[in-house]
Amino acid sequence: FPSSGTEMLPSVSPDGRRIAFYSDRSGSSALWWAELDGDSTPQLVEGINPVLRQAPVWSADGKRVLVVDSTAPGDRLLDVDLASGRGAALAGIAGTPLRATWLPGEWALVAVADEGGGNLVAARYERDGDRWNAGSRLEHADAVGVAPDGRHVLFTRDDAWGLWQAGLDLSAPSLLDDLRSRPGSDDPILPKAGFFVQPRR
Predict the structure, then answer these.
(1) Is 22 within 8 Å of 47 (Cβ atoms)?
(2) How far apart are CA 8 and CA 29, in angstroms?
(3) What is the Cα Rg of the chain in Å?
(4) Sheet containing 96-102: order of strands
(5) Which DSSP category does 50 fall into?
(6) Which tens digits make up the pLDDT trace of 78-109?
(7) What gap in Å lies between CA 10 and CA 30, rounded to an integer?
(8) Would you say 99 and 68 are in contact if contact means Cβ atoms under 8 Å apart?
(9) Best CA proximity match to 60, nearest among 114, 5, 17
């Protein structure tokens, strides 16, 4: 898509028919989306000031995305219906939301939030009408996503190297790979980098 601005954090819908991304082509950073049919032009979703930390997270039906929206009172997690351009704030999310991912079925999700002083916590939330109730937690979790098998959550930590996994209920966290060395070498890949680089990787 031609643009005079900068495009960031593209995300393709599960069915491969749509793309959502952030762009400053309108003069300020905003949420945009388009059909991937070769003929469409990107559509601006007005009234959302996205936090450029995580790519939009698609719903299974490819009609909605989760984004973190920056407002004067504070950041909030929005479930955005792209056709209407309306975003519904998820009530009940504790702390300042940083990242989130739907769990299979979309009646539950995992949100990572800063609970104060840089203390990052991933919490599982379950839908109860219009409210989301917190359940199990993982301390020091950072980037999160559902594994391809649909039965695990993958995550990084802000206090340790590597890619980790846990159950969908955030139980039994285990290290999959510390990601610190290339195969056949003991030399660290990023010897001077801090844990904060891991979500970007």
Answers:
(1) no
(2) 9
(3) 17
(4) 96-102, 108-114, 120-128, 131-139
(5) B
(6) 999 999 999 999 999 999 999 999 999 989 99
(7) 12
(8) yes
(9) 17
